Fold each of these.
Amino acid sequence: MRDVAVLGVGMHPWGKFADRSVTQMCRVATEAALQDAGIEWREVEAVAAASSRFSGGKGWGLNGNDVVEDMGSTGIPVYNLSAGCAAGGNAFNIGWTLVASGAHDCVLVVGGEKMPKGFIQTSGLEEETDPEHLRQLCVGMPGPAFWAALCRRRMQDFGTSHEDLARIAVKAHQIGKHNTNARFRQEFSIEDVLNSAMVSYPLHLYEICPVSDGAAAVLICSADIARKRTTRPVWVASSSVATARFDDGLPRGLGTVVPQTGPTCHSEASIAVGNALEKAGVAPTELDLVELQDNTVFYELAFPEDWGLCQPGEAERLVEKGETLPTGKLPINPSGGFLCFGEATTAMGVFQICELTWQLREQAGPRQVPGAKIGLGQTLGLGGNATAAVLKN
Amino acid sequence: MTMHERIPVTEGLFAETAAGPRLLGSRCRTCSTPYFPRSLSCHNPECGESQMEDADFGPRGSLWSCAIQNYPPPLPARYEEPYTPYAVGVVDLDEGLRVVARMSVDDLDSLQLDAEVELTIEPIYRDEDGREVTTWKFKPLQSTAK
Ligand SMILES: [Zn+2]
């Protein structure tokens, strides 16, 4: 496999944009990435795009085709990738594979999403053969209730307090207020978080991410091109995709087996991150920053422990001591994360690559992780999908 | 008091049997893996040969975790107006099956994790024709009120 570099990144701000199509938002992100890379559209050899469930793509998830038609139909191959909320990370992995394998030298990875208002249905089907449909029909346990149940178990096992949970949202907004692409840029106190509406006990409104509109694009290329075009390339040390193990005990669908050994966790995320670190030759403790999928504050406690970045039960104290801030020893989500952006579901994996790149180029301004050299991004999606990527400067 | 007609929220997932309420699933004869709902084949990657047979599960288990659904859930979940928050649980049945379920109580003091719970079939809402629509729920075996 060849070395692959991130040459350019671009983002359309996250928010609610009633008068703008997802393709228009993807164009803003794509043009910014091309300009950042110093690459013309006609030099792009292939597109790997996240398939949106909610917007554009002719209703078939053909969002990459929309982007190519909009930017100018040059006849290039388009790969539309579907992996639930992991689709952006999945598209990045395919883009990386296309360049690393030598099939192409210059590939655009893009993800954009316009989300419906309010709480979304998890299943896109109304068939009683679909376990996710049955779960909502018979039990009524949408995403936040699922996160809340995982969180409640942690509170039992590790004594996590309501203040411990709220502190993570406080920290996210402490950093996210500096990010001009973020949707929610106000600071909150612990009291503000605990006084926000209870969405699903024990999780409050400010402790879960809402849905947003947003788009992000990255231009990746071979080492030859990178060396010609820039003196400070950011390298893709590894990119991986995984699916869940049969016996991880996570209550997906209606039922699963009680795990015989090991903790209950998102095995897909642990596998993807483990593989990405191994392929990059990076120990968990060597990471300078992590952009992880914080749909809820719970994941900011559980994931670092699941992946060996800290000890089980240690995460609450790291947050309390400020160690997960950009200036701490384990910076998590210096972008502000999903909590400050809201989730534009299939764009999030590309969004993370943008933030990691800005951090590794030391272009992140007030949210900069000092001296950042190695960063990890991770996404998670319905169907037991997960992705991870390690970037280095 | 009039008895209301009862219908299950969906067919084939649970039943009142002579021995009490049960969840209807299957089990692999080769590797003993339990499935709910029924599965046509065994999904255990370590299993040598998928040999599925019908099996029912319950009524006893322990409460692995729970949460409150504080806001009205989106479709296809249904509820009666005015909306009242309900509890959902994740229950480890004695047969090695972990299932999601409604809880029959919704006050947090009664929902202690790792407590013993029992399967029950109860209504979740009344439909347009006045019929009570039922699903599977779990209720704590002992009141924790002291
Ligand atoms: Zn089997």
Amino acid sequence: MSVLEVAGLAKTYQRNRKPLEAIRELTFTVDAGQLVCVVGPSGAGKTTLLRCIAGLLEPTSGEVRLNGEKVTGPPRGMAVVFQEYGRSLFPWMTVRQNVERPLIEKRLSKPDRRAAVDEALSAVGLLDSHDAHPWQLSGGMQQRVAIARAIAYQPSVLVMDEPFAAVDAQTRAELEDLVRSIWQRLNVTIVFVTHDIDEAVYLGQRVLVLSNRPTVVLEDVTVDLPAERDQISTRSHARFAELRAHVYRLVQQAKKGLRETSPTL
Amino acid sequence: MIRRIVAAVALPVVLIALWWLLTANSTSYFWPPLADILKVLPDTWFGERARTDIAPSIARLLIGYLCALVIGVAAGVAIGISPVLRALTEPSLEFFRAIPPPVLVPVIALFAGYTGSLSKVITIALGCLWPILLNTVEGVRGVDEVLLDTARSYRLPRHSVILPAAGPQIAAGARQALSIAVILMVISELFGASNGIGASVVQFQRSFAVPQMWTGIIVLGLLGVLLSLIFRVAEHRALAWYRGWRDAERASR
Ligand SMILES: Nc1ncnc2c1ncn2[C@@H]1O[C@H](COP(=O)(O)OP(=O)(O)OP(=O)(O)O)[C@@H](O)[C@H]1O
Ligand SMILES: [Mg+2]
């Protein structure tokens, strides 16, 4: 059953009184419990798409439906991890308070909140830093706080916008595995935007490749890799290399302005 | 820490010493020796007058200031988050801010009475309102978009993010307003008041009680220092996060 339906979504910004067509037409669905990655050239409108899904931006036309209901504002049960994670943490709160704040709004009892925060923080390996303020942490740690906040919220849909763009390779690999394990454990639907093709193929069950602006879906690639993924064995899988090469070619073509493909793979 | 305290106290000590020395043998009627002034200070202020003059002055100051704080922050947040309201109010706000607050004293006295407390409270509140209001508007406008989006997507009330995020700028306005409040407290009393520190100074001057007049100036100075000290301690505690955050931002650049 599809949780998320994006139908005929289009977004045109007004910039200096001139229209800027960011998204021409996007249509796709995401099934419950799926992990879908979105890749596309920079400026393709990935963030715009996520903001529409998250109910933070009104599309110019078309609609987003969540569990059959049209999204008109931030929906219940959705958590967003923003591209600018450092700026999305509340600097006046400690790490613990940052993770706990949305749970207070959800009216969880104090012991429940404590348990949820502790669990989320240990999942991202930050339990020791719970008393620190976000600005006392490195970029990678800040990103993990933002992720901890999202998973403690126990969303049914988790939306992430290039969450690992600014962390080192080692941390990145760890965080990728963290996302996979959270996804398997919590049975959450994930839409994951990245510009890293390897990451998209490694993480996703599907990779949605977007065209250049004005954006359409170039191809919806199914990642038919085994469900158990491992940084070393999965990445050295022959099929991984094929998928990676395929998506890579698509993105290259997208950058050159290709807007339609015939299904090849 | 000790060095900072020494540095802060050094100049006042020098100035007081100078005042003491220069007036020590003064026979001038208008410049009595500092020793004489200090001798009459406790009797002048810390007896009956503490209740009849100092207390009413401070009460009016605090009531006016707190009114300005509540109204200024509330209106500032409303204007800051609404582009429409901003466009409507900004030119008039600039106009009102440009009016020097002391000029309000006679005008307000006309409506609210010369001698009562009401006109003083209104004067103080009005004078303090603009720096608080305008700084709040500025602070609210400057709140990071990503922070607001985060609050929205977790369905947090908007003000729960806006108020702390704009806190540093609101505090800057509140600090400016505090010194304005002290000035207006005195000025409003000079114009006519049945009691208060400023009224007492006028009374001493008229009755040629010159040393007592000087003690009034000293008490006002001390009051100003005390208020700003209290403010700073409160700000220091409430905005500890801001100093850390700002230093971290600077270091990362
Ligand atoms: N608020 C806005 N007003 C006007 N134009 C905008 C606005 N936000 C985005 N755009 C434009 O819309 C296009 C898509 O932007 P978007 O941020 O969605 O791209 P993106 O795929 O997320 O890029 P990146 O990979 O760099 O994060 C860009 O050309 C951008 O300049
Ligand atoms: Mg983006």
Amino acid sequence: MNSCPRCQSEQSACRVEHEGRDAQGELVWTVYYCTACSFTWRDSEPEESIVYAKRDAFSRVDLNKQYPVVMPPPNRD
Amino acid sequence: MGTNQTAAIKDVSLSDNALKVAQRIGSLRDFLDFLAEHGQCITWPEAVLPEPDIRDIAVAAGRDAMNGPALLFDDIKGYPGKRLALGVHGSFTNLALLLGHPKGTTIKELFYDIISRWGSDKPLLERVPMDQAPIHENRIDSNFNLYDLLPLYRINEYDGGFYIGKANVVSRDPHDPDNFGKQNVGIYRIQPQGKDIFTLLSVPAHDMGRMIIAAEKDDKPLKIAVMLGNHPAMAMFAATPIGYDESEFAYASQMMGSPLRLTDSGNGMDILADSEIVIEAELIHGSRQYEGPFGEFPGSYSGVRMAPQFKVTGISHRDNPIFENIYIGKGWTEHDTLIGLNTSAPIYAKLKEDFPEVEAVNALYQHGLTGIISVKNRFSGFAKSVAMRALGTPHGLMYLKNLIMVDDDVDPFDLNQVMWALSTRTRADDIIVVPNMPMIIIDPAAEVPGKGHRLIIDATSFMPPDKVGADAQIVSPPGGPKIDALAKVIQALQQEQQGGQS
Ligand SMILES: [Zn+2]
């Protein structure tokens, strides 16, 4: 895992959330979370979900783009 | 159970068998056992990977909308000892069993059953102290990790995360937190965003949306309890549109005819004492985070939005809990079965107030984006007026996009009959397009999000002063209860033969 499969943020933005182990304690998979785009993934998933180049273009997130805000919070400034 | 309770149950006027089932099922576990006894819940026999195995199996099971079974997974790689249930409301037979009917019950029979349950105003709620409630058998107050607690997985391949799609979320009006009547229970999609944070998607028009806006505007705390693995009546009935001041717990218990046991959550909400898991959380004021995409019920992904976040404050769960989730995506899915009849019934009730000629409403398709209404035709064009009224019902306002009107001799739940009506009774100029109407924002057929066109197809019979083509006299095959009963006899004989062969 070198970067986020959805927004390509660097490894430093990707956090390990959980390691799935079998009953004997052997590591089976790891769940990651991207702190830049909120994507969650498991390293055992099919490549269509977790490899940036194989993900359909619509499913990528561009961090420079403004996404719609659900119920914008009140401005307290 | 006390005598008062039994008397109250009788007021719902359910059949003996419906009452028997209602009294037996007090939780998700009870229902899964009951389904298994009827061959309607299978435990998956092999180890599965969270992705793609779980969604593959869920999609395959969902293909049989009439008779598909619920699925229980108890061997998920990387989640030893964890259990996941899917498809609990995934077929009409599962719904039939829940409502006390035998296998082989038709969708139309279920529709009339739900209608017949309305009118009871006797909630059957019991109170259980926290220390006796199964939901509190295990308590977690710190070091939360949702990815560890729940066997989470990606429902559709491009979902933004591992969604919780079948939670009943309890919340109270932030301005009136002690008012039980202003407690809301709704189903909202939840995306875990880290070990103890999740987004919850609502819109301003929903109860939760109103509460989030109110809490942030006046700087009041908004606490919620996310119930997972609930009594099957909750998912079935709590999503039905009802007035703001009515309790969904009361409504679900009335409709089901069985008492629901309530207890307190750790953060002061009323929760079901027999649910599997409850996640208590609090709104993080002013915080919005990337949410989505998520494969939604129209069969398309709803895009990325910035949605409100909640922080987990406590978790309770039963011993060896079952995480219940749902497959949503391109139909047919459990979501369609789960909400279809409860989408249809309120439209029927509203229409019936003005038009007693309305016979039945089938709004099973994608939450009513397409509806089929059967109506006794009074005169030429009559069905079109009924259709226009349907567009003004509370659900019709946003959802009923395509309406097919058929006569009362056509069962709107039998698509072969509907196609007969379309084939023989529709003229190409006998349709209405109503342009630029309100539309749900996630409908991919919208002109712009939230606005699009509606279609009414009149497939009812020709009535004076219509001109009629040649050879228009309709054959009147035998129908009614006698033929319905014969169809069931034939089905039973077939099953008997099948049983003999296996
Ligand atoms: Zn990312």
